[in-house]
Write a structure and sequence with these properties.
Distance between the termini: 26 Å
Helix content: 40-55%
Mean pLDDT: 82
Shape: elongated
Order of helices and strands: HHEEHEEHEEEEEHEEHEHHHEEHH
Number of strands: 14
Low-confidence stretches: none
Structural class: alpha+beta
Radius of gyration: 29 Å
Number of helices: 11
Length: 392
Amino acid sequence: MVAILYNLRSLFVRRLTSLATLGGVALVTFVLAGALMLARGAERAMSSGGREDVAIVLRSGSDSELASSVDTAAVQALRAAPGVAAPWGEPNVSPELVSVIALQKTDESGISNLTVRGVGERAFGLRPTLSLVSGRFPRPGSDEAIVGQRVVGHFEGLEVQPDGVGGEVLLGKNRPVHVVGVFRAPGDSAESELWVDLETARAAFGRTGLASSVRVELSSASELGAFREAVESDRRLGLDVTSEALFLEAQASGLSSFIRVLGTLVSAMFAIAAMLGAAITMHGAVASRSREIGTLRALGFSRGKILAGFLLESCALTLGGATLGVVCALPLKWVEVSMMNQSSWSEVVFGFDPSFGVLFQALVFGAAMGLVGGIAPALRAAWLRPLDALRA
């Protein structure tokens, strides 16, 4: 206990070097925590709302809705497949057409893609997390649209009024649609999309009779296997089946992995500098306290206790910096960013998600920097011979 208090007290004695190291570690942890929070925010915004009892059907070999095309005959075949739920007496099947349009951003950062989804009435019922924020739902067969709340105000034409009405967007073939409402759909990338009537989208993008994907509600999640077997074994259809939960997770994995890897690489580069700072601080501490170390050894403190004491001192220093970095990163939860999702080639807007697991990882990373950076000075202190230390 005496050795521990002695080591911790020395941090306050060397305030300037301790504060410099603490600041460096705080910066590294801030960057890492921000990257992990952003990656988790992307995953949560795009994939947490997927259902296991809803199947998504794409053209065989397609890895995204943009690359897929399903014709009307195949949609009719899906209605008769086994395991399809019929809550209102009819198979709950929703063909949806997905395309992208280029729009000018309101922050003058240039042009970016916005996903446009053509849907029928059943698309709303298949997403239980979807709800109206303002305005109303578009009338079937009309040139009306409803927009996800995360892209409201991000693009020209989507500066809707507080009542959810007022925006106008030009689709393909000079076909305008008028925004009449704003919706939210937590856990679904649809929050970054513009929804229009299915037939309106088909006419605007010249894809009459086609859909990009088909969402199918199943009687239960256990019916997915039988449904997939029946659909994929029919070679005339040429379709692939996956659960909505797995599909959304796969769509989000590319973007979240990119953010996580990039953030980790940047943090690793900063971490090298922070560990060098910790090592320099601790080497300085050993050099200035040689006589004190010799006295401890003469009083009977073992090399192991000296080693543990200096490692504890180093870890306490970096853990303090990591705690400061995590605290500084917490306000990021009120910040939203927009990034291009390469699976849909459109912009997705999401925020930072400071979960307990993410913050714990950042703290462990900070403590690990102290362990790695402090090991060499601690070994040097532990192996000082008492007589040599007392003569220094």
